[in-house]
C-alpha cells in the first residue's frame, strides 16, 4: 500500500481503489467518523465504507477520484455541504455529539481586557441552540473536500456532529475559522455559493448570527490538537502565534471586520466589532488575509 500524507491524528494508505485510514489515539473520533459516514452514505457526499476494524480504529473505504477545480469551486462546495447537512434529522438525535452553543463570556472578558466598551452587545450574544439536526462535517476545510465529475465530496469526518448547517456554510464569509488557511472568498463567488446552498435545501435564512458565533469562539484561533479547554482569547491579549497562513490576532481581526458590517441584524454587536477592530489596529500589527482563495486538495 502507498502511504499518503495526513495529519498527526491519522495514518492513511492507498490500496488501489480503496483508502485505508487509521485514527490515532482518539477512539471517540474514530466512532464519530464511522457513524457519520454511515449516516451520510445515501447522499453520495462521502466515501462508501467497505470494512471497519474497531480494535485498531481502522476504516477501509472507497477511494474518491480527485479532479481539477476552477475558481468557482465554492459553488460545488456549498451545494455539497447542503446535501451532507440534509443527511440527518431529529430521528438521529444521540447518534453523534450535539453541536455546542458558544459561550460568550470569554469573548466579553477579552473585550474588557482590551478596554473596549461592550455597550448593548451583550444581549445580542445570548446564544441558544437553534434546534437543527443537520449532519455537520465538523471541519469542512480545503483538503477535506474532493472534486469529482459529480461535484464536491467530503472526507475526514472525525469531528462530525449534529447541529446547524449554517455554521458551516458561513465558512465562506468568516474565513474558514477551523482551517489552517484563512482567506476571503470574493463576494460574487460567495453569494453564488450561498444561493446554491439554499436552493439545494429549499429555504433561506440570514447568516449573520452564524458568523457572530464564530467571532466569540477562542478555539477557532488554534488547530484542533490545541482545543483543550484553554482560554485562547485570554491568551491572545498578551501573545500572538502563527497557525499556517496568518496569526491568531490576524484571524480575530478579520472576523471582527466581517461582523462590523452587520449593522442591520446585529447593530450593537456590529458597533462593538468596529470599536474592537479600531482598538486592535491601534495596538497590534495588522496581519494580511488573502482576498483570493487558495485551495489545497
Explain this structure.
There is one protein chain. By secondary structure, the chain is an alpha+beta fold. The chain has a domain at 105-127 and 205-283. The chain contains 11 helices and 11 strands. It has a 5-stranded antiparallel β-sheet, with helices on one face. Strands 6-9 form a two-stranded antiparallel ribbon. A two-stranded antiparallel ribbon has the order 7-8. A hairpin with a 2-residue loop joins β2 and β3 (18-23). α2 packs parallel to α7, α8 (208-215) packs antiparallel against α10 (248-259) and α10 packs antiparallel against α11 (267-283). The radius of gyration is 19 Å and the shape is globular. The mean pLDDT is 93.
The level of helicity is 25-40%
- The global form is globular
**DSSP strand content:** 5-15%
Oligomer: single chain
Query: Can you summarize the main beta sheet?
Result: 5 strands, antiparallel
**Total number of helices:** 11
How many β-strands, per DSSP?
Answer: 11
Which structural class best describes the helix and strand composition? alpha+beta
Mean pLDDT: 93
Evaluate the radius of gyration: 19 Å
What is the succession of H and E elements?
EEEHEEHHHEEEEHHHHHEEHH
User: Reading side by side through the largest sheet, how are the strands ordered?
Assistant: 1-2-3-5-4
- How far apart the termini lie comes to 21 Å
Low-confidence stretches: none
